[in-house]
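Q: Structure tokens for this one, please.
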Amino acid sequence: MKIAFLASETPKAQESLKSLVARYGQYDPLAAEVMVVLGGDGFMLQCLHQYMKHDIPVFGLRRGTVGFLMNDYSDDDLLGRIENAQQTILHPLLMQATNVAGEAVESLAINEVSLLRQTKQSAHIQIKINDQVKIENLVGDGVMVATPAGSTAYNLSVHGPVIPLGSQILALTPISPFRPRRWRGAIIPSHAEVTFDILSHQKRPVSATADNTEVRDVKKVVIKESKKHRINALYDPLHNLEDRIINEQFS
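A: Here is the predicted structure, written as tokens:
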């Protein structure tokens, strides 16, 4: 099996890299049948973004502090684990952000797209679903759209729902909302298009972030699932990503 090992810069990941390469060999990622990523969730997201367009299966091994997207680490029977792994297809979100100067920026998000106020003043954001206004004016720190894979990350920390994989839904979650007072977010179909219009954007500037890509002083942000991009993530049958998402709701 042609394996490309990618490791974060941490000593633990680098030590494992040397051991695994000595045992299984090393291939260039674009010539490999599978990529094995050594690190935590942050490094995994970095690798997924870098190689997403090449549609190479990815098997993560936890060598970082956080590893929700990773399998447990072991250097024994790696080939057998990869051959028996369950496939999970993930589709990222496409963020189309326009800033106050009229410049348009596109970026992909595997976890979430989040809008946050840039100053001490609350953000004022109008929310549309498929061009229909659902919230005239959300007042608060911001709002986000999270994928099932990202629902246990930032989304969960702001009391958003945990979403099972395969449900074909997204989480629309406010961040410290002040108005509407009782609105705590919504579950929307994954094919829906979400539009955020920033009200009073000159006085109340807002930034938009798609995973690690930030666009400041946005005026309008459109978010939709990108079906033309896909991630083939591999997980051990007894410890797959869907089970982790379910278990997270009971911890």
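A few notes: The chain has a mean pLDDT of 93. The first strand starts at residue 3 and ends at 7.
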